[in-house]
Amino acid sequence: MREDQSMAGFTPPTPRSRRLGRELRRLREARSFTQGDAAKLLKCSQQRIARIESGDIKPRPRDVLEILVAYDVPHDEEHGLTLRSMAEQLREPGWWQRLNTLPARYATFIAYEAEATDLRQFQPTLIPGLIQTRAYATEVIRIGRETDQEEILQRVEARLKRQEVLTLRQPPLRLQAIITEQSLMLEVGDANLRREQLDHIIKIAALPNVTVQVLTLAAGAHLAVHGGFEVLTFADGDPPLGYIETLAGELFLESPEEIRRLTGVFKHLLSLALSPRESIRLIQEKKDGLG
Hints:
- This protein is α/β, with parallel strands linked by helices.
- The protein contains 13 helices and six strands.
- It has helices spanning 15-30, 35-42, 46-54, 61-70, 78-90, 104-115, 134-142, 149-162, 164-167, 181-185, 191-205, 256-272, 276-288; strands at residues 118-123, 174-180, 210-215, 229-233, 241-246, 249-253.
- It has a six-stranded mixed beta sheet, with helices on both faces.
- Strand 5 and strand 6 (249-253) form a beta hairpin.
């Protein structure tokens, strides 16, 4: 097995690559091989074996074939053919990989979001990206870190493309979003832009796979006053993933303790938020107040 990169350019790990890695690890352990043993058999570094098993490296179909042979697993029977097919599917680049302006961690998040079944999200200041209009997204990205017009355009298009998981993907992503009253009142753009954005939230919230609830100013202090977060869950027993954006960059949280913490905070926020129906009524009131 060669030590070169499995694909040109940045290719973030995904639930599918982690799933393939876990299966390859299971096969190795069934033979009582250590990662060092496997590295010697495959004439590669132990680090490469570890990164394949973690999903950080997407092995080529021929890499998987070599692994199956080394582990004495029939490669032309159902199990072996399935693993080789999984490796082939990993070669298909996601749309986000064609955009050279996206930060690596943001591209990683998009890769996970594209395969998630459920997303629980709390945004304390802005309307979440999945339910932003083009105009709102453009304004937010323009006043953020981006200054180059081409980069702004690519970031906006990426944000709108992400939204397809709610409507075009089958089955669609189930989104449970908690937003704040402050985000409904924040002056992003002019009154027409804000009115369009509030109307868009109402329309998106009518989708059967989307729930939007508002945390009002009257709710007072809460456990997430320091920032927003997201929790993604996946099919096929893949572990959930937490995601937090900070001024210093994005953080991924994977340990069971961290996920329990985020889940507990989300439940706390739900207990303080308005019901979905009351939330839509408040959003409508804010929209009407813009004239």
